[in-house]
Amino acid sequence: MARPSDPGVTGTAPTRAAPARVGGWLALALLIIVLDQLTKVYFNTSFQYGERVNVLPVFDFTLLFNRGAAFSFLASEEGWQRWLFTALGIVAAVVITIILRRTHGQPRFSLALTLILGGAIGNVIDRVVYGHVVDFLLFYWKDSYFPAFNLADVGISCGAVLLVLDELLRSRKKLQA
Length: 177
Hints:
With 177 residues, the chain is α+β, with helices and mostly antiparallel strands. Helices cover 57% and strands 14% of the residues. It has four helices and four strands, in the order αββααββα. The protein has a four-stranded antiparallel β-sheet. It is globular.
């Protein structure tokens, strides 16, 4: 993901200022993790499993558990997926942290990685502590439902969209040059 050909990214070791820059991104990731975990603790202690509280005609707060990945992928398996997704989340967090240390002068790219990092760690914590991910945001239209999700998922999704946007804008800029 690091792009050595981009301005500000070199093949050399990070400069002295790099730890300060990466520290800000890691602080933002920590904020995402804390907000995610606080909301999950709230819903875990204030709601019964499956309980729903209507907020808007298309949105409810609820308490659901996801043993799988996005959209409950592999949720019905015997439990091995818990450790697979935990390991994947940890590996992703390490790789993202390394990339953030090497990425300078690319705030949009760094923000995208930071959002993904915070979300990934938030869901890893759930898998380790509870054995499943706690979801509490439920959007629907009539009888159609989007799978329930949480703030960590919001971070991951927004980060992924921002990565795509960053790449499209970078490609467009290269074409104009």
